[in-house]
Amino acid sequence: MNQDYIQADEWSIIEEGFDKQHVKASESLFSLGNGAMGQRANFEETYTGETFQGSYIAGVYYPDKTRVGWWKNGYPEYFAKVLNAPNWIGIKVFVNGHEFDLATCTKVSGYKRELNMKEGWHKRTFSAVLPNTIEIKVEVTRFLSLKLDEVGAIEFKLTLPNSDAEVSFVPYLDSGITNEDSNWDDKFWNTTNVSTSGNRAFIEAHTMKTNFKTCAFMQASLDYNGKSIQGKLEESQENFISMKFSQKIKRGEDLTLVKFGGYTVSRNHDEGELVSAANQALDQASILGFKGLLEEQKQAWANIWEMSDIVIEGDIKAQQGIRFNIFQLNQTYLGTDSRLNIGPKGFTGEKYGGSTYWDTEAYCIPFYMATKDEKVARKLLKYRYNHLEKAIVNAQKLGFSNGAALYPMVTMNGEECHNEWEITFEEIHRNGAIAFAIYNYYRYTGDYSYIPEMGLEVLIGIARFWHQRANFSGHKKKYVILGVTGPNEYENNVNNNWYTNYLAQWCINFAIEQLGRVKEGYPNDYKRVVGKTNLTPTECEAWKKVADNMYFPYSDEYKVFLQQDGFLDKDLVKVSDLNKTERPINQKWSWDRILRSPYIKQADVLQGFYFFEDNFSTEELEKHFDFYEPFTVHESSLSPCVHSIQAAKLGRMDQAYQFYLRTSRLDLDDYNKEVEEGLHITSMAGTWMSIVEGFGEMRVINDQLSFNPRIPEQWNAYSFKVNFRNRIIKVKVSADEVTFEMTGEKGILIMVKGKQRELLPNNKLTVG
Amino acid sequence: MNQDYIQADEWSIIEEGFDKQHVKASESLFSLGNGAMGQRANFEETYTGETFQGSYIAGVYYPDKTRVGWWKNGYPEYFAKVLNAPNWIGIKVFVNGHEFDLATCTKVSGYKRELNMKEGWHKRTFSAVLPNTIEIKVEVTRFLSLKLDEVGAIEFKLTLPNSDAEVSFVPYLDSGITNEDSNWDDKFWNTTNVSTSGNRAFIEAHTMKTNFKTCAFMQASLDYNGKSIQGKLEESQENFISMKFSQKIKRGEDLTLVKFGGYTVSRNHDEGELVSAANQALDQASILGFKGLLEEQKQAWANIWEMSDIVIEGDIKAQQGIRFNIFQLNQTYLGTDSRLNIGPKGFTGEKYGGSTYWDTEAYCIPFYMATKDEKVARKLLKYRYNHLEKAIVNAQKLGFSNGAALYPMVTMNGEECHNEWEITFEEIHRNGAIAFAIYNYYRYTGDYSYIPEMGLEVLIGIARFWHQRANFSGHKKKYVILGVTGPNEYENNVNNNWYTNYLAQWCINFAIEQLGRVKEGYPNDYKRVVGKTNLTPTECEAWKKVADNMYFPYSDEYKVFLQQDGFLDKDLVKVSDLNKTERPINQKWSWDRILRSPYIKQADVLQGFYFFEDNFSTEELEKHFDFYEPFTVHESSLSPCVHSIQAAKLGRMDQAYQFYLRTSRLDLDDYNKEVEEGLHITSMAGTWMSIVEGFGEMRVINDQLSFNPRIPEQWNAYSFKVNFRNRIIKVKVSADEVTFEMTGEKGILIMVKGKQRELLPNNKLTVG
Q1: B445 within domain boundaries
Q2: What ipTM was assigned to the predicted interfaces of this complex?
Q3: Burial class of residue B301 in the structure, from the number of CB atoms within 10 Å of its CB (0-12 exposed, 13-18 middle, 19+ buried)
Q4: CATH number, residue A498
Q5: Model pLDDT for residues B482-495, shown as the tens digit of each residue
Q6: Which residue, A436, A435, A553, is CA-closest to A494?
Q7: Taking Cα atoms as reference points, which of A114, A725, A216 lies closest to residue A441?
Q8: Which B-chain residues 553-582 have CB contacts (< 8 A) with chain A?
Q9: Model-level pTM?
Q10: Number of structural domains in chain A
Q11: Chain A: residue whose CA lies nearest to B551
């Protein structure tokens, strides 16, 4: 895909012209979601060209049996894959008995697709000439309702500009679907009932093995000149049901089919009540009608944007980028259900599987903390607390004991479900991100209560893990951590990854600090937790010994911490000296070549500098940034945002801006040539950070918000809002000044460019 | 399995008593093979207990599609798996209509199983009481003919000691078989024809994907009191055919069913001629009859033993061990077909897949060179020459160029077919073993011709690989080799594995040396090879620069070369201090724990000392042996033999003896608790080396054989023969003296304990 494929627009993603080569990419980019379900932007009508069909239900997954040539002890039995759910959007369209299919039309003109992010809907308009020479004009609008999150709505409007003909619509449900991404050749849906009632139909199906019960449903109605045309049941098979609506129409007349559809699932309803719940949802949708439900949709999105919008003036592409990121994050996770989490591809694809990675703690929590109520972030923390026992079991599998906890690299339900040894067994820094998020949550919200109630137990399990995972090197006379994979997954099984060692040390110190604080301030919780975990002072001393004597690889020559032992033995050719045809290296190079190269997939040492910036001087940051960035290929979506933030801090606004574009338009401009597989959802929170924490340099320092805003020269102004301790603070930055406004009852002290200022309700504060 | 399960016997493997728990282990241990086919010692009659059914045809394999969670560039598309072939041994037995099955008999007594290694046959004798209370006495003899290597023979003798009854034999062929080891759920045999002719039957089937055509065949005849009983076709299905022979017999009478069976394959016959070839093979077998064919078998094995036997006096278990190893090697590979190689499990199991590993060059060639004609070793070298182009393509896949060759880690046909990245992409030392074998072959046989004819090209491809694979470390100011897996596969993706670096240096130097020698002595070959490879002096200089400046990790503290960078950072707890319940660690520990431990799967640095012992003093060997052996768990079958040889060299005969038992009785005593999966064939050549090169300390020094024999105190004497440059030299070692005898036309100078001696034909040389 080229960079100009998507039209620049402040509020919409727009594609003009129909190009079969772009269908799969656009199916990703125009995806819809409402937190409870989501789907790729597949066409409603039959399409026989290349397509990647996907409709997903939050929390519904399938366990792919782990299949490897050589089993290694400790492998999880399965990999939980995001699962393509029964299709409810399908509407076959026939004109004089000939099926309409964009892949076979002799001409397609005026094709335009719009994803309206402001209002939360997707629309296609075009004219097409069928092989039988009849031309049709089509306008199809679709959205997944935020108001009724089990329901989606489609309005399919068809006109015949040049001829009379009989038009038939065949809306259907289909549970005979497959997955794009593995599931090998397993059948994974078991359809138990196909039924119909009036203009409604239902397919009840449950997932094999995991036994999630679902009911896919639909209701269809056809309008012809304000008259409702009756449909009839067409086909009812084992896993398919369709209705048929036919009408002869004259040139210039139009027909409008409205289809409501969606899923009810056993996560939310008694499993015997799925059909009746579906009927209720359809009743509610019917009362509002397509237009009424769409109005509700606009309002619901307006409410989301009211709090989370970032406005950029003077740079449409940058504006479009950030809104795309915020929109997709909100389509994926709204913080309403503590059993859910934020899958790396959201509802836009299947790759990676699982719903929860360290991305949630490292990237997403800051976004949700600032743009929603703090309860949303607390829900995400609680999710990990709920999985603590499973993290302990996971660590036991790998040979750890005494309550040491290793959180899974990938999970749906707390169990590890990733099966590459170098990741599952070795990418243990994830444990650190979870501890960091506890710290970050408290730092931002001031709500300490999570720690005595739940967090302390998590911190103890994590400290125990690090204590056991390190070993004393008689050679170095220090504790070392051998055989790990850092955030830079282009290195596997390395020794003394600086980031991991640093996190390990930090986690132990943080746990000990919180033990002290809880002991003092929450003696009952302390007693409960110490009793439950059998923690003794001797054990804490043993932890401390490891933290105090941790080894950190360092180069005297370059005066930088080394990403890992031996990093300087590599052939240190900078990325800029690589031939462009070699990139992305993960598509061009064999794995061994990547591993022995110096190339960094995503910030690793710099990720540590990002988390713990207070512990390093700006000069140190600059030295490390200048050493590592030239070797960084940013082939992880999580990389550019951290670099953007750090470049901004170093006052390198051009570089920060380039990284900003790369993170915000990663998918829109398909930097890594993989958008067909789906969007990179979790890194989208990093895009938000790159504006707020990067350009805005927002920090929390000693319970105060601090800002040191900069602006890229390409922009006239930008503004964002954050929810900080029950105040909504709006920040607007232009080249000349920064203005702050707040809503809330009481004023607040903030730091601006190093100086303390008082911000009062309804009283604009301007700093020149 | 316990150590005393197999009866000690000089010439036979004997199991007494029927134990269902041991069936799978015994199926491995009693396996039969004749180089062209082989099979686990499955019962002929139906057995419903736990069993691992396996019958294998040399060179017939199936490509399992590579299935990994995350595809890495360079992965081979498939893993060639050893394939269970149609069953031809099956004979159902019914007594008064009740099927005989050892799993359901109410009593089994006098059960004895013997694998007679001297004569090459397998026999079971026992009495069993069927659920219908009838007792039967059974004696079943089976062998795979060396004389007619497409044919196997079974004699099934049944007597009724206590009652009259009707006995039916139902010999059958069955191509509806599955694989024990993956092939996922693929169907992999396609049966095309099932036919019968008189007392013969045929199933023609070909492998899916690889399209190897085979005909499994059988012929059966029943003898009752010297009278031949006619059978009739019983069942003929899509992939099954059986005949039925029934006879009422009286108490004390016996019935003998003789079944010939086997395979004809398209590797050896026109694919339209497989049935007629089968008929010819059966004709030949019929002429000889079971007894005649068995006599031929005894003679053929006598010929093999004549040259390859090692006699150990005074230690039956040691004797049995070495013969078991020599027997199995000869069952697996006889050196008659240069398209075949020596699979790690031979015909005894499916694990590992592929037929060719570096085991062939590092372990098997010395055995075959000394116990067969030198042409056999040359065939094995030629096998690799034939695959040079594929090795170049393999290297290209991984990003190498200019004719660099990387031989596959595992192959059936020259293509890489292993798909763990840490092995396939990184265990590159295999390239060195192939170069070493060229050197070793020439050193032993004195036949230089392979090098100008073929070997030089191989050496150039390998040198090019090492040159490109190393990189200059600006930090170390040396060439380093990053991201490798050494012979010790309990380390992955390490930097500067000493063994690999040493081999790389040696390969380059050896290639350059041979280039000089060929240029001088074989100018036409030189011209041809240089022309074909576009080799220039500048390129050789570049190689040389890498070799001359290779980095070797070394510890000043311990005065040893380090297995790899960072080895000393490990928690250096010796194996002897590990709790026994933790072992074998590959069954008890997670992979990450193994990787970060100091434990060594098999000799790594010591493997280098073994290959290149002339380059190190005995003191250096001792220092390295004492440093590394205490961390070695020997969980690779290839480990104890090298240690035995080196312990003997260091005069530590007790330790050498223990390692000898471990290598020679690895499977018989099931040291690694995995014999059910099949035998460790390639390491059996290491057992041979541990006597000849270890206790006998046989070397070739400047074109002379040299001996420095020692004897374990548990032995009275041992003797072996080697074929050295057209002389057969027999060596017998006792505590007091060593005697040498030779056959051949001309005498030869040998070194004994450092002194030169002349050995003349038919003239015993005794050294006190």
Answers
A1: no
A2: 0.93
A3: buried
A4: 1.50.10.10
A5: 999 999 999 999 99
A6: A553
A7: A725
A8: 557, 565-566, 568-572
A9: 0.94
A10: 2
A11: A569
